[in-house]
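Checklist before submission:
- one chain only
- standard amino acids only
- sequence pasted in full

Submission:
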Amino acid sequence: MPITDWLHYADHDLDPICRSPSGSFGPITDKRIIHLSLSDKIDMRLTLRQIEVFAAIARTENVSRAAETLAMSQSAASSALVELERQFDCPLFDRIGKSLRLNSTGCGLLPQAEDMLARAADIEGYLAGGVLGPLAVGATLTIGNYLATLVVAEYLRRHPVSKIQLHVANTHSIVEQLVRYQLDIGLIEGEANDPDLLLEPWLDDALVVFCAPHHALAAQAEISLTLLSQQQWIVRERGSGTRALFDRVIAQALPNLRIQLELEHTEAIKRAVESGLGIGCLSRLALREAFRRGSLVEIKTPQFDLRRRFYFARHRQRHVSPAAEHFLALCRESSGTAQGTDTLELPFIS
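Returned file contents:
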């Protein structure tokens, strides 16, 4: 019997038809089941819903949270997973208390499951008249606050019925979500060394040391390392790309560095520095408007190489959907011919 003998898509309500091996047609009774008979002795049955439940549990490591994201009951989600594992006599998770951790088989299945679900979403969009499938984008705080929101706004203007989610967090969190297949695309600052990720350079950027206009260092042309080590610093938290570069370059050069505050948000750091609590170090992109207004001033530090890059990041095994391709094209369009964030045209900076 040839491999294409049977391929059924069925619907409880609509009663469609399919062609049998003999060429005749007959009603189908189950929409969500794909039934593929490879031979007289091999018979595989699974549903997209089972795959969807498996992927959600893999992401959350918890049946209740997975069921909540899928708008279904916990018992239904648990039953779907148990049935999938029972059908193939193949456990996909290690049960650890109330948590479920992917075993080696589950880890191998997850990228295939995510790829299948992404392609199914593309098909639904196509059949719905060219609507792009749902898209989950992650951006680090600097990119999320100053670039990604602009791109998302333009994306929704061009595709008003499409669904897009923007998650803004530090680099460590975005990388972790990409590795766990929770995001389609990541926009990150600095490099990620995870072997499962593919990185594409986007824009050059640099960190800048800065202070309030009334600060003692504001009027000095040359600042020594000794003087910098005596300052109170207000910096990003560990796990951010900005903090990683700061630690690698500045903290290593200033062994007696005094950190006054660690804050998760760039705007909070800017406000603290403006109030005179200390000096800071952030992306030039985050400081361009404040420098233009004169509420903050740059401290020249030619002794430090604080250059870095913004990257597009994605999981190497994740399908690049049409929605992801459209979003990346808009990112490139938004940056135009600019090579770096210092020359990037932004609507909020005149």
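Reviewer check: Residues 1-42 have pLDDT under 50 and may be disordered.
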